[in-house]
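User: Please run a holo structure prediction.
Assistant: Happy to. Please share the sequence and the ligand.
User: Here you go; the ligand is iron/sulfur cluster.
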Amino acid sequence: MSDLSEHLRFYQELGVTGVSRDARWRTRGSSQPPAPGSQPGGAAQRITIARSSADALAAIRADIGDCTRCKLHKQGRTQVVFGVGNPDADLMFVGEAPGGDEDIQGIPFVGRAGQLLTKIIEAIGLKRDDVYIANVIKCRPPGNRNPDPDEVETCEPFLFQQIDVIKPKVIVALGTFAAKTLLRTQDPISRLRGRVYDYRGAKLIPTFHPAFLLRSPERKRDVWEDMKKVRVLLQGDDD
Ligand code: SF4
């Protein structure tokens, strides 16, 4: 299939009905990325004993339990939203925090944004079950506010543990909050995306959050460019 026809198919699947003449979609940020190979959150305990990834993830989930480690536990959450997908996934998506639908169902990315994420995954020839999906923060912040720094500091070690168990080849950081948090930078997603970063043994690609795409569908073309990079990285050598 030609690149152009793939491009058009992606737009069709994601519901893009027109092609913007806005040249900004080609813009690439000029900021320097954080130090390559830096390993934020090194304090997180690594689950490295020999057992299946599924067992290791179950152990992390059991450790979280009915977590009360940060104040989000008493601010209206229904449940902890741990993560979902293939424990041995080559591709992992990381978002910010559960929203209303996720809080009720206990599964990340199940609302309208989640349905769009599923289409994005399928656009590169994968199924949702092939990948792993998690958030930096496991409990819904009230009113969908941004998580506070103390909440991130308390909760993100669980994400680091998940990444270290799954050992994905590629991590896609969905949206400004996830990208800034994982890369330890204040640069907005518009400057971070378009580049590939080394992150905890994986390649990290920041892209726009599906919820943002629902509001700004003209940016889907940017996500397609990012997902093409993801596909190339996934097809790379295993060594
Ligand atoms: S957000 Fe994380 S640290 Fe805070 S209560 Fe939920 S699981 Fe625990």
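The domain at 49-234 is CATH 3.40.470.10 (Uracil-DNA Glycosylase, subunit E).
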